[in-house]
## 1
Amino acid sequence: MQPEEVLIRQCLEGDRAALDTLYLQFSSKMFAICLRYSFDRMEAEDLLQEGFIKVYDRLSKFNGKGSFEGWMRKIFVNLSIDYYHKKRKERERLKDFKVEFESNVDNTEESDWPDLGQEELIQLIQQLPDGYRIVFNLFAIELYSHKEIAVLLGVSESTSKTQYFKARRMLKAKIYAIINLKHQEQQ
Amino acid sequence: MSELEKKDRNFFKQIGNYSEQPPASVKAKIDAALDKKKRRRILWILFSQTPSTLGWLKIAAVIIGIFFIAYNFFINERQPNLLIEKKNETINDKASEKTNSAENISNSIEQKKVIKELTPPQKHNSNLIINSKNKPSFVEKKGSLKYDKQPVLTLKDNSKISHSKSKKSIDRVYRNSNLNIKNANQFLVPQEIVHLNNEDDITESGNIENSNGLRCIDELSSNQSEVLAITKVSMDTVKIPALNDSLSAMQKDDTSKHKLEFILGIKFEIFKQQSIYSSNTSMQFDENALNASEKSQSGKGYIISTGIKYKNWILTSGVKFSQLTEQYKYKTLTSQGVGSLPLNQPVGTAFVYNDTLYGSDNLNNPTLSIVNPINSIVTLGYTTNDTIVTNSYRRYEIPLTLGYQFKIYKKFNFGIHSGISFTWWNKISGKSFNVDKKVIVDYNSRNDIPIRKSGLDYLLSVELIYDLNKNWSALIQPSLAYSLKSMYSNEYVTSRKLKRVAISVGLNYKF
């Protein structure tokens, strides 16, 4: 048997040490996912906690097909989508962002992305409004199609596309703003 | 997928592999949550969160248990404090009723008892008198006692109770006095079996105590002369005459008008339900559509009820589980693109009510404009389709009603009840109209549609009861329920109250 399978079996038998090992092995990657989907670190920590409890609960449902990490990743992404639904009210802020963005930003349809560190990029993704952030994550990073996103979020495919393009514009604007700031500081 | 999107994915690929060590506090929280969950799992065995049949049986068992505790509490209040440890007991009762309210009671109780303590019952006016002319006497035959003259027990209303058969081994203290006959046990108290070796066993306080330290407190008098017969017999082979259930029933009939009755019932209910929406203008189009196309709302329910009845008044509670199914008919419109979009390719969905299109800027027109995914305006045609969606709900209720029951004809009784019902929405699944997006969306939880967790209903019901026998009765009960609170939460743009007409049938058992 593969070590991963052994670990899962031990977890299912209630071995607490195996659960700890599982956490150590995957927590860093899952935390990164949580960071991307959440508004701030605190929310990400909540997501991570809830996600791992969900993983422990559903371990018996893992059928061994596909990678275990991929299965876990899906649980965390779905959990993030649930969070998004719960925060429906906050999504109203989208409109304000839209106005602010459209009046201040140029060069938004450029295809190239300026260089920026991963940590900084994640922080900027976190700053996106909930709706933008979730669509952006699902499309650009999780590689879901707009059709799949539409089903997951209960929106139309065109809404998903629109949200994505607005998200990337906003993200790009934020990146440029940071780069400009860095230039100014250097000068 | 456009080149732009491909480049995006390529760029953000690195982000997908990013990892960061979470703070240690998260692990501690997870451990704490797991420990808590483990503890909960133990309770889960008794009360599962899901409304399974097993779960309901458990709840029913708890209700019945509470009911019996309450029942015994009230009964024990009327009894002397008897602490009897029964090692083995076999009861064989036979009873027959005679005309003119006379009863012959034939019974025998064979038991091995250790009597630890008998607290005397309160002396009071009993309905039972041992006829002084028929004092029991015994003769010894083949080493055991038999009735020579059987006792005749007379009720105050002159109906008679007698022991019709002789007993093989009798060792008793008999008294010519009024006896407390609240039930068979109490009747036995004054004639309890004692195992006496000599008269010294009768203590100064009037207690009768045998050589083994077993004792019976003489509840009526300390006068030894009232002891009519004391003989020796082994405790293990003792046989005691006792009153059977008929006596209890007779007494119950006599006093039932003045004491509490406990009722346990089961009912099955079918109902029809109607929604009443608020007239919120911002939701007018949606709610009109919902109302206009509401096909049916029906359901069924299962009820376990308990009641306490005093005279004609009855206080009822219980648990009810109901399932509701509702259907809505939506008229959907599928747009078809022309011009810049591929011909006949559906690009969106809108809704039509009363020939008015919703979900687009351009109404009342077979050609309309909608925004396509790349923000350009195109001209479209549309076709309409009917869509029927089915929603289902599960709900728990705890009704609490006060009622009045009275006899109308022979075994028929009539009752009227009024009260409130606490409700909990449990499982919700179906489809809903999303106002923002003008689309029908699936929902499977309270997160998708803002349905309250709990609610409050007003209940009004009448019932026709038919007494099958002294304990069992069948009933049919039409009822009306009306939501006092909207089933949607306050934040939702409209309120929806439910009006329900139901009819239920069931059985009651009276204790």
Note: The CA atoms of residues 23 and 29 of chain B lie 11 Å apart.
## 2
Amino acid sequence: MMIQMRGIQKVYDTGHVEVRALKGIDLDVDRSEYVAVVGPSGSGKSTLMNLLGCLDTPTAGEYVLSGEKVAGLDRNRLAEIRNRHVGFVFQSFNLLPYATALENVELPLLFGGVAARERRARAAEMLEKVDLADRMHHKPTELSGGQMQRVAIARALVNRPTMVLADEPTGNLDSASGRGVVGLFDELHDSGQTIVMITHDMGLAGLANRVVQIRDGEIVEDLEAAA
Amino acid sequence: MRSVAAELALVLRLFRADLTHQRKRMGMTMFAIAWGTLSIVLLLSFGEGLKRSLSAGARGMGEGIAVVWPGATTRAWSGLPSGRAIPIRDQDVELVRSRVPAMSAVSVEFSRQAALTAGTELVNARLRGVDPEFGELRNLYPQSGGRFLNARDISRKRRVVFLGEELARDLFGTEDVVGRTVQIDRATFLVVGVAQEKLMTSMYSGPDRNQATIPATTFKSMYTDARPSNMVYAPVRPELGDTAKAELYRVMGRQHRFDPEDERALGIWDTRENQRITLNITLGIQIFLGIIGGLTLLVGGMGVANIMFAVVKERTREIGVKMALGAKARQVMLPFVFEALLMTVIGGLAGTGLSLGLIGLISVLPLEGDAFDFVGHPTFSPAIAAATALILGTIGTGAGFFPARRAASVEPAVSLRCE
């Protein structure tokens, strides 16, 4: 089992009000699964994504990612786990504006301490995979939205993560670019990449092979799509 | 290390991006740093110039020398009462010369007032009779074309004189003086040398520029009742000064029968003491000036820190992204520290360049007068460069560290949510 969550709770203490964002989530994701997490805003899906991506730690419960217990680790250990196991794809791309596409893709390798030559080669290879070989030395401002998201996907994949964690990956794209990105996710899924996608777009969620619905901090439905 | 280099390349690009983004603020801050550096470098250089002038002045009389006068005992010794006068005799100087190996040079000094005439000019000046070693001991160096007294002058009791430069001017005006004759108490002397001008802040019996120096033997034959007024010596090495002094007291004590522990039996002025004090005073002045300059620079450093705090705030989201991609605290902090250091170093280099230019300018200005002898020569030294670099580095690192620490405390989950 790649992802194992048991009794995950997350409580935000804002000082005078306690917000129970997650009220006990049990979730298992297997290797090569393509899971969509859906739910209305305020349902706790963003909180779940933060926990899945090790950006935050749960208030209670147990989370084992690829055999490693995540709960209770310090910031630097969490950073290492994100670096090795999680490839983020954000709605707003989150590329560094002053760096080229190639440098953006190199970042996870840089933080992982990969040597310069290998870093460059792997980043270039990944950009070729997302059909951006001719855009390597362009800055994000010189790229279209779809191209930026593909750079971001290349960045998410470059360190061969345990899972790709995507948050509304098509949210900021026109439908044509969105289709391109969705196609890319399909290809990834076919090649055996584990993908967890957070979205409120049921159409997008329908492309995954499993849909987990969240409401009020609890899983209300977990459907395996018919193959 | 390699990832540090790659980080650096990114930092440089960031720096350029920031520079266009907040050009005015960064420009002002780097100017503040340059100004602070300017004040540090200038103040320290003035301090250094002052130190060199002061120590050159203190050395004008001689480097590490001691002057010994007759004294009086303060203790009874070998059946002799205290309060007994201890003279310095010719033969004592010879004895000290042969018995004290810790001394590199010894000279007797006779002195009296004498009337010097050249043509129609009559000048009353201090006349002294000395050994050839006196020139080295007391830093009496001849202007070109002349020489100081030598061993032959002594052994042959020659009537030759070495003139202080002001005395030579008073007697002869500005003409060539070496080879001309001067009457000293109606005896004719040949001028063999004129002293080079020098800065002299410590002295006994007046500045050297107004004195005439002749061989001790000649002096004795002219003034047959003369007794040495003092002797001058230098230790072989500065650290042997105390040994030389102790041996002097031992040799003289045996000769004149006084307690070698009786300090006052001889009057002694050990100039190493003065030089130590001068050094400490000027060091104190330099530290003081350095602190003033450092405080000025600190203001610039606060400007840098202020900018860096703003930059951290602006880049909160970017920091979150880097963290999501696996950047550790150190990797988040490094660019900010580098950027602050870069700003500081650029400002510091500009300030240093500017102050070097100013120092060069001051050195070519025709500044005349006694005061400028001391403050008119600001001097840049490697020690100042090192001190400035150290202060700049510390301030730059500090100005980057605290904002960077704030950056590292960013919560990635929170920062990614803020659109």
Note: Chain B has two domains: 2-59+276-417, 66-270.
